[in-house]
Amino acid sequence: MSLITTFATKRPVRLAVVTALGVGVLVGGAAAATAAVGHVRTQSTPLTVRSGPGTGFEAVGSVAKGAKLNIVCQTKGTRVSGPYGATSVWNKIGEGRYVADAFTSSNEKAPPCTAGQTRAVVSVGKACSSNERPYPNGRVPRSALCSLRAEPGESLRPRAAASFNALSAAFEKANGRPLCVTDSYRSYDEQVAVKASRGKWAATPGRSEHGLGLAVDLCGGVDRFGTSAHHWMRANAPRFGWVHPGWAQATGSLPEPWHWEFSGG
Ligand SMILES: [Zn+2]
Q1: Rounded distance from Cα 201 to ligand 1 centre (Å)
Q2: pLDDT tens, N- to C-terminus, the chain (265 residues)
Q3: In this structure, which residues have their CB less than 5 angstroms from ion ligand 1?
Q4: For the chain, which has fewer Cβ within 10 Å, the N-terminal or C-terminal residue?
Q5: Burial of 199: CB neighbours in 10 Å, binned 0-12, 13-18, 19+
Q6: How far is the CA of 179 from the centre of ligand 1 (A)?
């Protein structure tokens, strides 16, 4: 499945979440009294714990079959199938630790995650514009876009750009060069042109996350699976709200190591 659908359903929540990105620090989990206890059920292997609510987030650990989990809150993410059906609900079990609800059972209902509980884990600074109004795909005006660090010809929606710029600075610190970008926001007309030249390697015009100004195609090594640059991104981008969607991963339906999306933090 594509995260495009997933993110479309959760975007309203995420937009509220990221209003405080400029302040951006970790907020503790819900009080123990409000947390529900869930029991993990996995079929044979331990259940993977991820840094965010989706299969695009880095694996940060695992929990054994039958383990008892304290579920802090629930949020929407990648749709996953498990012993308890197919659902896009993910359980937050700690700071930067999430498991798919399709693998957990609980007698109590855990509360939905608040903005503070799912916000980005790093500060990303102030955006160049406060215009986060929704626009049709490929019809975002210049005033609602911000340029990217070291790539002045490329742009994204304000919060996505601010997060990207912070990510690029962190990437440069670790790798000695900023993130290299081949594609970012794409107008509708540009999407039509890209589809004509790239065929299946491009989304149907009007459907691309690029048309929302929330996706980038990267170069400089990130565009190849197995490189140190790609690994660095897998491990670090989620802290900035950037994910490599499941469909674009090596095992996904359309492997695109270069394609990354802003999840809203
Ligand atoms: Zn792309």
Answers
A1: 9
A2: 333 333 333 333 332 233 333 323 233 333 444 577 777 777 778 899 988 888 877 778 899 888 888 888 888 887 888 888 888 899 988 878 899 999 888 777 788 887 667 666 677 788 999 999 999 999 999 999 999 999 999 999 999 999 999 999 999 999 999 999 999 999 999 999 999 998 888 889 998 899 999 999 999 999 999 999 999 998 889 888 898 988 999 999 999 999 999 987 4
A3: 217, 259
A4: N
A5: exposed
A6: 15
- Gap between the Cα atoms of 173 and 178, Å rounded: 8
How far, in Å, is the centroid of ligand 1 from the Cα of 67?
38
Kindly give the distance from the C-alpha atom of residue 65 to the centroid of ligand 1, in angstroms, as a whole number. 37
